[in-house]
Structure prediction request, 490 residues.
Amino acid sequence: MKKIKSLFISLKNGWSTPPEGRYLTFREMACYGFSGLGVSFIVNVITAVITATQIPYIYEIDVIHGTIIFSIVGVSNLLIQPFFGKMLQNTKTKFGRYKPYIIGIAPVISLFVVLATWLPQVDSMTFRVVYAYCTCIPVLVLWNIWYNTFYMIPAVMTPVSQERTDMLSPVGLIMGFAPTVMNFIIGPIRAHFMSQGREYMAFRLMGLISTGIGIILVFLILKTKERIYETPQESESISVKEGMRLVMKNKPLMIYTFAMIIGSHRGVAEMNSYYIGQFRYGETTEQGLSLFSMLSPIVGFAATPAMLLLPFMTRKMNNKSIMIMWQAINVAAYGMLCIIGYENIPVGTPTAIVITIVRFVTCFNAVGTLTPIMLSEIYDYQQWKTGRRLEGFIQTFAVSMTGLVTQFAMFIPTFIQQKIGYQPMNFKNGAEYLPENIEIMNQWFNISAVITVVSGILFIAVMAFYPLSKKKYNQIMEELKEKADGIIEQ
Prediction:
């Protein structure tokens, strides 16, 4: 009884007072987590519907357009990000550097998400193509800026790396609640409207519900604070040219960026998961979607134990080792599928079981949480190296440059899809179960698994040279603390 009372008192004190040697209260972490849930509700619509693989299906246009749209977005992000980085670096408000952008962009991106999911019901192919470009491109450009800025905030909430990890692990669980809920309900909703010949209504509802919930929760970000070590250079304005020049000195960033580029196709197989569920989990697409939706929470749960383990793993292991270990598991799982072949797994329950197990194994990681942690340390390294954190400019390499190369590289699998006749818009109304279409789908699923394995191996090979170890990082932070004039709080 005394232990329970002591725990209760500790939690009560920690709600408004941080532990010794730490900066974050439970209340502040909770506000960041639930604002992240709002972000996740909005982003989940984008990652589930407005993807290079889904756009051709939902808009009923050629498969090439999904890749072209993402390539345009990649170029746009690379052009916009340095100037956005300059804006971030030079922003000084009573609300901090990042929160004004999170709040300001939220309603704009929500509007475009609703427009993008409000699919036009017209026969004109030209109109559908134009509508897809006019709605999806703004959504995706804003998403990159908005989502990445949100994940910059933990880096300035506390200068203690382990505290960021301890916060982001439970936050990741909270944010994961949104896709788990939406994936669970959207399958039956799609199946219901699909049986009526009105699948577009499911996407409209998904857009309205997710943005409605998300926009309310996002505003909790105002209850958090930004804290960074103050250096003389940090308070000075900087130009785009100077910012880009300085981040080129960041060796961990350069290696991390190259690893992300060379391994940019390691998620290609997972991008097909919706189609595999829709076309191979049941005797009809409606049955396949319903079963896929029911099994999705199991796959989503795979990240939960990994997130809970991450704070303990980062205390004992280097971030590089953890990242490589998880990628090796991914390679092994999809390597097994390459050996078996999708066509050798019977359609229906056997496919559902095998693919769910493979997806569970590959999703047993907390890469989504570890990535912003590694970038936070790269920001700290940049400040130690040059006196400036330059988070926005670092995003140009870590996200925008990677995204641009990735999207142009996606033309390779897209051309393969066109070559073998893989056109999702043709797989409707029973046509997906014609023998020739089944053969085409299986062929593409196998090719995508091979691409994933090769890309994963290349990613591991480059990440092996990542130089920022735990020991090196701790030394950097001690030196940075000595150089700084203290911590500024906003």
Summary: The first helix runs from residue 2 to 16. The CA atoms of residues 80 and 396 lie 9 Å apart.
